[in-house]
Task: structure prediction
Amino acid sequence: MFKKDTKMIKYNFTLLLPIILYSNECLSCHKNYTAKKHFSNHYTMKNAINITRKTWGIKDSNVTLQTLPKAKKIIKSKEDLVDDFLRRKCLSCHLTSKNINPTSNSCLACHNTHKNKLDSIKAKPTMNKCTKCHKNEYIGGEYKGLFPHDYDKAYRSPITPKGYYPNKSAGIDYHHLALDVHFKKGLTCISCHNGKNFEEKVDCKSCHKNLSKENHKNFHKNLSCNVCHSSWNISSYELNVLRDDTANYKQWKRLKVQEDIYLEQFLTKAIKLEKKGILIKPKMPDYLTNRLKNGIWYSGWKYRRWENNFLVYDKNNKVKIAKPMFQYRISYKNKNGTVILDDIHKNIDGSKIEAFIPKAPHTITKKAKSCEMCHENKIMLDNNLIHKDILKGKVIKGRVFTKKELQKLYSPKYKLERAKILFK
Result:
């Protein structure tokens, strides 16, 4: 099995060596955890990397964290930029990243709290270890009821009685919304995503085996539980990203908090020095080599919402909530101040660099949504707005509703069933 995996993808064994050496030490006792574990998505990051590269227009992308090409020195196109974007903006979290793991051991990335050098190995990773990477608008944040603020200083949380802003979590400011019911009851990530099914998909029926048939009609059999039982969902539209190789920092003084601890610290220092007439070179780390490189990646969203959701089918023909992901508008300015790419938002085939994926929000509540939240949802019913303007994008690993399927949402059968409930 190990040999088969290494043939599938050409790995850089210089990067793998410390992982394999340490893993052999762990595996001398933990024999059931095979070497294949270190070719998992948590280690290779292949899903996030290849979906992003394909969205930017690189066809047939099949690389991993270990084989991701270095960015080109002379940037001429958005395809040239994507690997630099990944290495210096997206991949700050991976099992051997110094940003989250001071050791070079993939096992200890999760099984050690890293509080000190003598810290003991933890059999079960704490939830904080999971959410250190699964943060922001992803599952770890929403599970704890955290919705990220917009970046401008005006959106910072109100100051505390002592005159300070509240502490940020992993460099991010949050609104505090409804908690997931499982989080309220003390369940952590590994309560469901345990060693046996660590990277396998789990669903509600893994635990809730005796669901009431009274409230789960046959015509809802293709619905994911989250469609009705998620209390809110994060929708962040159009991530504007700019790589700027010039030392012009004062324009960012209101936007220092960009969910990036390094960038916040760099801008704080650079703006102070700029006031004194001292300009420092814009540099940002390559999180795969831990070396500083020229240029800074800035970012900002067009808008963020928690709102009425629109629905899509996943690849298994299960109805799920659609989440906007991998939506980019790209700009690049070189060290001479020349704009090489100016607000590029079209792919090589002319379509928008915009995508949606079927998701299962971890914002579960015991009480389900009302029927009207889906069946009279204008986002769904208005000729399927996913095809229009800001919602126009490709659905990855799924598909949109057909016109006939949309008509069922407001069909006479729905009205009859709803009337039975309302007028019992």
Q: What stands out?
A: The chain is about 30% helix and 15% strand. Residues 53 and 302 are 21 Å apart (CA to CA).
